[in-house]
Structures are given as structure tokens and as C-alpha cells.
Write a structure and sequence with these properties.
- By secondary structure, the protein is mostly helical.
- It has 16 helices and 2 strands.
- It has helices spanning 3-26, 38-49, 64-79, 81-91, 98-107, 116-144, 149-164, 181-196, 198-209, 217-240, 251-260, 276-288, 301-316, 330-357, 363-375, 390-417, and strands at residues 321-323, 326-328.
- The protein has a two-stranded antiparallel sheet with strand order 1-2.
- Strand 1 and strand 2 form a beta hairpin.
- The N and C termini lie far apart (48 Å).
């Protein structure tokens, strides 16, 4: 497979093929106990592959075979077809060809051509170790919670994979809220590790192997952004929830929601009981999302950091964007603003479109649903998703797909069009503001 084919749409096509295969598998007899229409099967497959979490039919309504299909789709969606192919080759002892290395090199934002193969091995090893460790740790929690041995084993495996992949899908009727605090803490740790990004993990592992290795600027930005967003998100949700218009949140619930609202669709509380201010804040955090190279969606933390750095430098009168003593190139800054503007426009347009065709829903519910689909978060405020019409289900499925492959497609578009500046035109000022 040539690199040019990947740039022209191979990645979105691979996800689309996986969604179609999943749709037909979910339509097989004995998969769902309540019966499944073609639209519902497509929506469920799209949600699983895109690691979203929005469901028109609860996962508990699926048989073991149906839940197993959903779990496989989540895992494949986590890796992506191209990464999965490379991982299988590496785990089988084979080396990547030059073309495959170039493909992964471009998909990983030119991480390091020499370290591309090492990066892919890290992705596979890190993913499977985290998921296995999470399942082992969760198992006694479900067992103590009154579930049977085999059911506890299955729930532990499903929620471990669902948490690390930031899928937000689970077999329990009330999802993670039905589990005890112990399981929720393990789930939260897996969600954080999955949303941190493999680039940061790879960087940290290199530091452990070589004490002379310096942490990359990307990793420093991600870690700082995560810390700020978690602290600000937790404190804001906790304080806002104390308002008379909503339900009080416990500190742990606010902490859990501050992380899952940016990455996964699990929630320890009923979101329909939260105040409008809390739901608005959650919409903002959903659109921010996780970090590059992770299973999370959204704008990404580094995009937000570059934008705020550009704003700060503009206020200070600097002619360049500088973060931690490093100059950020103009193309990266323009790319960050482009992705942000496109995300906001898509969220606004999608919310208006859903509101126009769903008069039974409030405007806030419509914007929340679109933001949840576009960001890959999968939170549902008040059981909105099952109440959607057939056409609106397809609309939300489109936004789930766009949120999953959109940023990558935009990135590949820019990579393909990047060219050296041969001509330099004269400057002229334009009055703005």
C-alpha cells in the first residue's frame, strides 16, 4: 500500500469498512435479545469502532456473542486498521517494510523515522499490559460486588478494554455507576492512561532507559495541560453543582467526570440531574478532548495549549509563538487554529441541524449530543440517544465518524499540501478588531 493512497483517504476508508463489517455481524441472529434494525446495528458498530459510547440500545440487551462483537470492534477501533496491521507484523517477529514505516511515520506526525518501529511496539505492549492489568485488578471488585465468577471475569475484561480505549461502553444497565468505588478508581486510572497518548508514554519510557534523554516539549505540554484541566475541571464542577438549580456532586464524582468528560463516556452520576451550568461546562471539556496519539477524541490538549500560547504572545507583542523556550512554527499554529475553528463550526452546525429535526429535544440536549458525538466522548444527558429518529441517528453517526477520523484527515490534508515557500510577497497591514 502506497503512502499516497493513505493520504487520499485510506485511513477513513479503513474505519468505514470496519464499521460496515461490524454492522453485518451485529445483524446476525442471536446477537441482540430485543431485535436490532439495520440503522441501530450501524449506529452501534459506528459507536464501538469510533470509541464513542453513545448507544441507541443498551449493551446489556445484547447476548454474550453480541457483546463480544462490540468488544472486538472497540479494540480494533482503538488501534485502527493500519496500526493493527503493523502491530501484528511486529509481534510475529517481522520487520516493517520501508513503505509501511513511512506510512506510520507520517501518521505519527513525523515522530522519528528511526523510532517508528519502536513506537509501534510500544503501542502494542503498552495497550495490552494496561488492559490485562486493569482486568486483573477489576475482577475482585466485581466478585465482591455480588456478581458470579464468570460474569465478574467478563465484566472486568470488558470494562478494562472499554476504559483504556475510552469507549464508554459497558454491559451493565447502569454502566460504571453500578460498580463500586474500587472498580471506578481502576477504570479512572485506565481512562487517564488511555487518554494520555502513546507519545508521552514512549517519551517517559525512554527517560527510564536513558537518564540522559530529555523529555520532549510535546510531553511536557500534555502533562501540564492534563494537570490544569483536571484540577480546574474538578473544582469547577464541584462548586457549580452546589447551585440550587442542580444536584450536588461528591468530590470523587466531580473528579471522575472531569476526566471522563474529555475522553470516555462513563459517568458515576445521572447527568440529567446536573445543573445547566454543569452541562455547559461538560460540553466545553468534551470538545477539548484528550491528547494526540491517544484513544481520546476532541481538539486535543496540545491544540489548546498552542492556541493559548499564541494568544499570550499576541498580547505581549511577540512576533513568534514561544512555549517553554521553544519556538512553535507558524504551520503548527495555523493548523491548531484551523482545527479549532472547524470543530466549533461543526458542533454549532450539528447542534442547529439536530435541533431543527428533533423538536422533542431542547437546544441544550441537541448541542450536548452533537458535542458528545463529535468529541468521541459518548456521554448522554438524559437518555437522548435512544429517543432519536432514524434520520437523526444517521446524523449523529456521521459526527461520530467525523470526530474519529476528521482531525487525522485534516492533518494528512495539510501534510500533503505542505510546500516550501519559494515566493515571498510584500507585507501590508489589514485593520482587524
Amino acid at each position: 500500500m502506497r503512502l499516497t493512497l493513505i493520504r487520499k483517504g485510506g485511513v477513513p476508508l479503513s474505519f468505514a469498512i470496519l464499521i460496515i463489517i461490524g454492522t453485518f455481524l451485529l445483524m446476525l441472529p442471536g446477537v441482540c435479545t430485543s431485535g436490532l434494525t439495520l440503522t441501530d446495528a450501524f449506529f452501534t458498530s459506528c459507536s464501538a469502532v469510533c470509541l464513542n459510547g453513545l448507544m441507541v440500545i443498551g449493551t446489556a440487551d445484547f447476548t454474550f456473542a453480541g457483546q463480544f462483537i462490540i468488544l472486538v470492534l472497540i479494540q480494533l477501533g482503538c488501534f485502527g486498521i493500519l496500526s493493527l496491521t503493523a502491530i501484528v507484523l511486529l509481534l510475529s517477529g517481522k520487520e516493517l517494510s520501508v513503505n509501511n514505516t513511512l506510512i506510520m511515520y507520517n501518521l505519527n506526525d513525523r515522530f522519528s523515522l528511526g523510532g517508528t518501529e519502536s513506537l509501534m511496539r510500544t503501542i502494542a505492549t503498552y495497550t495490552f499490559i494496561c488492559e490485562a492489568a486493569g482486568a486483573i485488578l477489576m475482577f475482585p471488585g466485581f466478585l465482591i460486588g455480588g456478581f458470579g465468577f464468570f460474569q465478574s471475569l467478563w465484566l472486568a475484561l470488558f470494562y478494562s478494554v472499554g476504559s483504556f480505549c475510552n469507549a464508554g461502553i459497558g454491559p451493565l444497565p447502569g454502566d460504571i455507576a453500578q460498580a463500586g468505588r474500587y472498580v471506578q478508581v481502576i477504570s479512572l486510572a485506565l481512562i487517564f492512561l488511555g487518554g494520555l497518548g502513546v507519545y508521552v508514554i514512549y517519551d517517559l519510557l525512554q527517560m527510564l532507559k536513558n537518564r540522559h534523554h530529555h523529555m520532549r516539549l510535546h510531553s511536557r505540554i500534555v502533562l501540564k495541560c492534563c494537570a490544569v484541566l483536571i484540577v480546574c475541571g474538578t473544582s469547577s464542577l464541584y462548586l457549580i453543582s452546589m447551585a440550587p438549580s442542580g444536584s450536588d456532586l461528591e468530590l470523587f464524582d466531580a473528579f471522575y467526570l472531569s476526566i471522563t468528560s474529555r475522553t470516555a463516556g462513563y459517568s458515576t452520576v445521572d447527568l440529567s440531574l446536573l445543573s445547566p451550568a454543569c452541562l455547559t461546562l461538560i460540553i466545553v471539556m468534551m470538545l477539548i478532548g484528550g491528547s494526540p496519539g491517544s484513544t481520546a477524541g476532541g481538539l486535543k490538549t496540545t491544540t489548546l495549549a498552542v492556541i493559548f500560547a499564541a494568544l499570550a504572545c499576541s498580547f505581549k507583542g511577540d512576533s513568534a509563538v514561544i512555549i517553554s523556550g521553544r519556538t512553535i512554527d507558524l504551520r503548527t499554529v495555523l493548523r491548531a487554529f484551523t482545527i479549532t475553528v472547524m470543530f466549533i463550526l461543526m458542533a454549532v452546525f450539528g447542534g442547529l441541524l439536530l435541533s431543527a429535526f428533533s423538536p422533542q429535544l431542547s437546544d441544550r440536549q441537541c448541542f450536548f449530543e452533537v458535542a458528545s458525538a463529535l468529541s468521541g466522548t459518548g456521554l448522554d444527558a438524559g437518555g437522548v440517544t435512544p429517543r432519536l429518529t432514524e434520520g437523526c441517528k444517521l446524523l449523529i453517526a456521521f459526527f461520530m465518524f467525523a470526530g474519529r477520523v476528521g482531525p487525522l484527515a485534516i492533518f494528512m490534508f495539510f501534510v500533503r499540501r505542505e510546500k516550501a515557500n519559494v515566493l515571498h510577497y510584500p507585507e501590508e497591514r489589514v485593520i482587524v478588531g
